[in-house]
Amino acid sequence: MGWEEEVQEIHRRRKLAKQQGGEEGIAKQHAQGRLTVRERIDALLDPDTFEEQGKATAIPDYDGDDKFLGFVPANYVVGFGKIEGRRVVVGGEDFTLKGGSPNAAGLRKSVYAEHLAVQYKAPLVRMLEGGGGSVKGGGRRGGTVGDPVFSAPRFRIIADAMGHVPIVSVACGAVAGFPAGRLVAAHFSVMSRRTAQVLIGGPALVERALGVSMTKDELGGAQVHARSGVVDNLAEDERDAFAQARRFLGYLPSSVDQRAPRTATDDNPERMEEELLHAVPRNARTGFDMRAIVRMVMDVDSFFEIGATYGRSQIAGFARLDGQPVGILANDCMVYAGAMTAEAAQKYRRFVEMCDTFHLPIVNFVDQPGFMIGPEAERKGTIRYGMAAVCAAVQARVPWASIQVHKGFGVATAAHYGPDAYVLSWPSVETGALPVEGGVAVAFHREIEAADDPEARRRELEEQLRAGRSPFPRAESFAVHELIDPRETRPALCRWIDWIQPLLDDLTGPTSFPVRP
Amino acid sequence: MARVEVESEVTGKVWKVEVGVGDRVAEGDVLVILESMKMEIPVESPHAGTVAELRVAADEPVQEDQVVAVIAT
ipTM greater than 0.90, yes or no? Predict the structure, then answer.
């Protein structure tokens, strides 16, 4: 006789673990417009690629009289899978069991997700739903309480993982407490617009502590987090969120020890778009569509924007140039002329650090009028966040190309150039310490006041200075690499992509700084 | 018939009001032009319809997310 009986038991338990919260629990989840964790995993991954870890994890269930009732599956599912043929780790709470609040076996697997990703050098996708720990089950007498004093910090691996592998968080339902913390400890976070909320504390806690009665949507729905920066992107539904997660990972290496995958492209590196010649209006007061410029220069359909609704004066995202993944930074002059607000600065710093971590070259389309000014900007501490953005740029190690498109004024402009940046200038650019309007009034106020016709003198001085700001002298002085026809931008950048290939070969490994949420 | 509130995306000042109450507008038509950080920022109609209300006038200050007009669709 062999081990048939035990083998049968193994299969029974594996089957049991897949039952999740049973038919009733699954039906309830579906009725609320949400998928189960196993459906989510299938929707994210290439078909039939899920390799579950801990297939039979469960906890035994007893009634009040210590009578054995059966096994309850671990309510966290984790394992390997593939996205576009590349291995990832995926994990998520099973909300159909105890509302995703981890049972003992579930907790172990949940904490394991980051370990697995770091150990096997694979990106991690977290599918979050639930409120974390519960007070239920606490307060039992006897036994030990709390972790031993010598135990390693529980969140250490969550912090460390951010410096090793790409991490994506998807908010699939209400995400509160510790899961909310885990959500933001990622390089990209996305929430489904109608079925997800992200909250530190839910309505009951808020009402008790602050006497404010609010729904979870009012507290932490998509409307709130589009502007808070807690999530980067909104998705129409869960499937759209998973599609965005897949797309995001396509631009990145599997870990900091590898190079980002360069793909074949049909898009001609020499392509010159006629429209670029007219993209920037001659009248400096009239705005233009910076995203359209980015799309015309990058490989067709390769631009993926990150965090469009937060820090909106600054555009950030990934794209490809001749198949090479690059980080894109660009100013949106339709929002505060593209000025660096406190939010834009935080978005900027995080994005530069992410590109630095995964060694993605940065291409920067500069239209920077300076740090945002005014009473609100001062109250928000803009200069501190702005200077942090400058520091991130000037210490960056990745190859960096900047295209001076329109404006480049003040200290904030320093954030747009990494060390040894390759600098191209369009004829539409105007640069300096301060814009001519305003700057002249400050620098020459005595002279203007003393003139017979102060207004005429101010205009005269402004005209003189403006003439001195032509980009031609800067090109003559080799203060920029090339002054170019805007249509030449793509060919010039594609050549640069070719030049930096040996640099990218040498850039792998962890960065000298930790990456933090 | 739905009423759509059109919000300003930026803090600034109303430079010009381009439509009047009762005017027919198409999607993307400019309703109001704001001035913010020395740039002219058009506020466009998100839908085709009729201008039901104008809640701002020239030279008035405007806050981010403030409703500047209401379109009846």
Answer: no
